[in-house]
Design brief:
Shape: globular
Number of domains: 2
Distance between the termini: 31 Å
Number of strands: 10
Largest sheet: 6 strands, mixed, barrel
CATH architecture of the largest domain: Beta Barrel
Order of helices and strands: HEEEEEHEEEEHE
Structural class: mainly beta
CATH class of the largest domain: Mainly Beta
Strand content: 35-45%
CATH topology of the largest domain: Barwin-like endoglucanases
Strand order of the largest sheet: 5-9-6-8-7-10
Number of helices: 3
Length: 167
Amino acid sequence: MIKRNIKRVIRIVKKGLIILVIGSVVYIYSLFGGTYRSYALADNDIKIVCEANTIMNMKATAYDLSVASCGKSRNHPEYGVTCSGSRATYGRTVAVDPKVIPLGSKLFIEFPNKYKNLTGVYTAEDTGSAIKGNRIDIYLGEDYPNDHTVHNLCLDFGIQNVKIHLQ
């Protein structure tokens, strides 16, 4: 039953779509937008089938909008603005080396088990002075004034090995 359902789902996949099976739900992601469809299955494994032009293993770090991460205070006119001109957004923004991953690229990022809740589709919208070669920086959000919760999450994240599916 499970294999038949997965084959049925895989048949409708075209270039630029990713199938992600988590628990009993199959998510189909488009590299050009959010969740496309979901199907219920009876399975507890995670399986990923991806039609991507490039799959890369990279090192990932995390950043927030603190002065320590970005070098800009809240009153700076470019606070929270990525190098592509968009506002940094949790669950979407990732900083890359544009020599490795072009800005504007859609990426499906697989995180290790401890951070698998972050697994999903991101957009290469930013760069960073320390982001060179096979390294990416995941935007995790912004703290309220005088709060350091998100900044501490970024520090705790450290350096993680991730798999990037690049269209």
